[in-house]
Amino acid sequence: MRNHLIDLAAALAVLGLTLAGEPPDAGRAWFWPIAVAVMVLAVLLRRRFPLSAMLVSVGVALVTPPLWGTSVTLYTVASLRGLRWPTAVAVLAETGLVVSFIRPSSPPDWKTFGLALVLEVVVPVLAGLWMHQRADLLAALRDRAEQAERERDLLGERAVAAERRRIAREMHDVVAHRVSIVALQAGALSVRAKDDETARLAEVIRESSSAALNELRDILRVLRDDGPDPGSLPDPTLGGVRRLADDLAAAGAQVRASLPDPMPDVPDPVGRAAYRIVQEALTNAAKHAPGTPIDVRLSTSDNELVVEVANPLAGSAGLPGAGYGVLGMRERATLTGGTLSAGPDGAGSYRVRAAFPLRTEEPC
Fold first, then answer.
1. pLDDT, tens only, 276-314
2. Which of 51, 69, 101 is the last residue of a domain?
3. Is the pTM of this model over 0.85?
4. Where a domain ends, among 66, 101, 136?
5. Are 272 and 233 in contact (CB under 8 A)?
6. Is residue 316 part of a domain?
7. How far is the CA of 300 from the CAs of 145, 224, 348, in angstroms?
8. Which domain range does residue 61 map to?
9. Which element (helix H / strand E) includes 208?
10. In the predicted model, what is the mean pLDDT of the chain?
11. What is the CATH number of the domain that holds 270?
């Protein structure tokens, strides 16, 4: 659009300068409007057919002299083609046009010829070549910027891949090793147990450790980029909350679950976030208040899902923690448009409460 406006302005300028000049003699007066129209048309089409427009404008100027358009078309050829043969042809044509009108035979004529040559040939050509060089430089700088951006993205991807592999190695060498020892010890204890209760608890520990190893194996494959895409791994759902409570109760904890049957149908992101929050809250309750009853409640309304996990305040079992449990739960709730509160409730209990809106779209 901008180039079209410039072309129109140039054509109008050429038309105005030509009409302001002296018209040709009476013998060619009938041809003059046609020549002016052809010259204006050549100026309008000079970007699409630069050399052709230049030669047409020179031919029209030879027949009847509206000379202003030839400088414009010469500039266009130089700016679009640069130091190539079309520019050389255009320069020769324009020089020949100047020579045909000014044939120097005395010093004053030479001065006029030199001035016309500078104004009609040298200035348009130099201006066009400068614009051509500027366009090439801008294109080169743009290419270099795009190449630098691609290289930066590639280096970032490589750094992320290297970090993921490093994390995978650390998880395999440390976490997987420790969990494998727990599973082996629990299996041995279940075989050698002297009573059924101990054997049952040992079997629960072994099954939980084996499940953790399987999940860890899937995560390690994702981190090493040789397994399934993270989105293809099975996601936990709201229906898994009952299994979490049952597993913890099977391990000897006092879990009192108040869950609807059947579980409500909620969006996948909400169900996944609720499952993880309950999982983290149960882990924290068993870690920091062992032996105390744990209440798990889940309720729904038309617009909201509420999940609560509460336990009496008690002394911690001394198990180490990562320190990011509550922060992670709050992030999961926020990503689904929900809210989370965690802390003493003023009635002697530590309560985790998460509320999720049910009318929500999956976050991008």
1. 899 888 888 877 777 789 999 998 887 889 999 999 887
2. 101
3. no
4. 101
5. no
6. yes
7. 53, 40, 26
8. 2-101
9. helix 196-223
10. 77
11. 3.30.565.10
